[in-house]
Amino acid sequence: MSSLTEKDRAIVQLLLNTGTCPRCILRFCCVGSQTVYRHPYKDLMKDLKDFLKNNQEKEDMVCFDIVDPPCKRIRLEDTEEGPDDANHNGTLQQIPSVNDENTAMENSAVEVCNVCLGILQEFCEVDFVKKVCQKVNSADYQFTSFVFSVSLPPQLSVRERAAWLLVKQEMGKLGLSLAKDDIVPLKEAYKWIIHPQLSEELGVPADGKALFEVSVVFAHPETDEECHFLATACPDCFKPAKNKQSVFTRMAVIKALEKIKEEDFLKHFPCPPCSPKNLCVALEIQCNNGAVFVAGRYNKYSRNLPQTPWIIDGERKLESSVEELISEHLMAAFKADSFNFSSSGREDVDVRTLGNGRPFAIELVNPRRIHFTAEEMKGLQQTINNSSDKIKVRDLQLVTREAIGRMKEGEEEKTKTYSALIWTDRAIQKEDIAFLDDIKELKLDQKTPLRVLHRRPLAVRCRIIHTMKSEYIDEHHFRLHLKTQAGTYIKEFVHGDFGRTKPNVGSLLN
Amino acid sequence: RICVITLAEAHPLLQTGKTITSINYQISANCSRLQNKVSGKSKRGAQFLTELAPLCRISSSDGEEYTIYSCIRGRLIEVNENILSNPAILQEKPSTEGYIAVVLPKFEESKSITQGLLTQKEYEEVLLKR
Into which family does the record put it (chain B) (predicted)? Predict the structure, then answer.
């Protein structure tokens, strides 16, 4: 094998003996060529053995002592060799796996790798790829690229560490060092192998930034408890969190591995790691599409429609809502799991929204369909508008996430225009309200109105009334048009809210 | 439901001739209603009031001192500091700007509290009987 050199020989031998698969061996020899990993498993195994055999002709054999850990097992099917720490002959024939390579390997099933637990073995094969693709296709998503994310059981980090320590020690004997970062990471190698296969089968490229995610969770229940020793060694890394089932999350394990001292690690964990009986299992293969955002403007013509569903104690107080009327059709068209409705401000149930309409946006979570032409969007808009006379939408379009931020920004910075019909107890004349027209940039201090105090924090809000225009109606009525800063409580400005909004129309009129 | 505590119509302080000399929210050595601080939607930190908890003591020029009681169980949200600077509004506008305090009862108790109160009509009948 061209990528391997002399210095790798000892490592290859060592790892092969201890039950490590060829691809993991290549990783620990820092082989960085992606294509090598993609060679079929059998070929790689053969190549490794050939590489080792070539050493037989050499004069100075590397005479190595295999570290004798407490729980190591070597498959000795075809040889009478018992303990493996006495190979002073150095002849490689005595290593069983090389001995009668064909029969030895064909007879015995492929051993589950003690480092990757089968990830770089079984789960690189066509069968698994087909299984994943079948799941993807049956889920019926629309996508142009994919990102494949893999969740590995935490014990793999532990085993990786053990293998590294083993290899490091061996390299040390040759006077060489091996940094943890030099080793090819398991996930990276796995992706080198599986991405092209998935890409071929699905017909779209793999892209780290893709919105469509295929995720696989691997588990290896047989060895789940291997991480537990870390809890005794580094207890502060493993705080039980309410949501998580197990304290031994991958992050916690990695953190603990960083903290633990080499000696402590070796005390608690066999090095090299034991060979497992079983492969990992792929617990779940899930598909998820990145959220899609639809924005537009809505008008509300009903004085009996809340923006969001109004439910008290499980009972719906009013039928339907703006968000439901709009999202119902979008959810069906985009085939999403759920939605998040947001708008630039809102209005009361008993208030209409006229004019150009209020900007809104809907985040459609995990949509199956994501491509819609302008025509199709127009069609959707028409469908929504035809379905109800309580609301109408316009300018329905697909937007980015940033658009929502900008929409929300406007909420604070806007100027609001209101028209208020005001009744006065005291009789008034035209002249009495004329002065209101001249007031500009009136500063208000508004305590949280009593009518919302039960559901809002108590605070004082400074707001500005930019301009006003009064319209006399009769001795007890007039209309007041106001331009105010966003967030101003108009009703409270008019009636004073027990004097908690100052100044107010009442105080101004006196 | 938010409750606003005000002087009742028939309260002596609202009868003609009485002048308020002082209003004191310090009801005991340790407790001043002015120190009430609430935070957040659930109004944490609020002083809890029972029906007989005093809100303030008001003195009039004829030497009388009246203690105003909460009458509502709940969290004290705020007391009206405007009446400290301008006691006149307490008498001129007792039901609006001259309110005493705002109390927020527990949601569960809301209904039972309301049922224990008198309507305007019932109150007037009580007054007639006096």
Answer: Belongs to the ABITRAM family.
